[in-house]
């Protein structure tokens, strides 16, 4: 059940992405831990929070990393802002676990599958990607294949690029 937003989701996602990257970059690569869905859950989203309630962040991911290890990595160095203390709850897709979406939640990030038209719009916004795209097309790649190659090489695995792509 999607919740109404009174949160600055863009600012929260920026804090969360930075924290995830800082806490996992030394231990995990993309095949170990790749977030596919990040959302706010819990009492603050449901409106049943107390003044001191934390902000629960559910992270669904692909990869071989153990949920307990990811939980420890993300929560051992606390993330907080003036408004919130964050609590991270990882769910491994490989283990068959997922975020329960029957309770109130507020999506922050969802990894989209490749969309050629969306990717072409994204390429037009970025000079480097536009250059790479033209080079690939000039080397006999179809436009869709060139866009897919750029998506797989430049967008996937880069949280900033993925976030920008998902905004389109």
From TrEMBL:
Molecular function, one GO term: nucleotidyltransferase activity
Pfam name, any one: NTP_transf_2
Sections of the chain in a coiled coil: none
InterPro entries: NT_sf (IPR043519), Polymerase_NTP_transf_dom (IPR002934)
SUPFAM superfamilies: Nucleotidyltransferase (SSF81301)
Protein's recorded name: Polymerase nucleotidyl transferase domain-containing protein
Domain Polymerase nucleotidyl transferase: start-end pairs: 30-84
């Amino acid at each position: 059940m999607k919740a109404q937003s009174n949160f600055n989701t863009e600012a929260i996602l920026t804090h969360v992405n930075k924290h995830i990257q800082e806490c996992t970059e030394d231990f995990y690569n993309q095949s170990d831990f790749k977030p596919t869905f990040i959302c706010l859950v819990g009492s603050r989203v449901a409106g049943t929070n107390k003044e001191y309630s934390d902000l629960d962040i559910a992270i669904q991911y692909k990869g071989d990393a153990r949920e307990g290890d990811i939980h420890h990595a993300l929560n051992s160095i606390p993330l907080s802002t003036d408004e919130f203390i964050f609590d991270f709850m990882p769910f491994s897709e490989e283990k068959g676990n997922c975020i329960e979406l029957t309770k109130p939640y507020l999506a922050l990030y969802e990894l989209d599958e490749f969309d050629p038209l969306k990717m072409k719009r994204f390429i037009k916004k970025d000079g480097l990607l536009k250059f790479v795209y033209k080079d690939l097309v000039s080397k006999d790649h179809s436009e869709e294949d060139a866009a897919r190659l750029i998506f797989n090489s430049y967008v996937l695995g880069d949280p900033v690029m993925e976030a920008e792509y998902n905004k389109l």
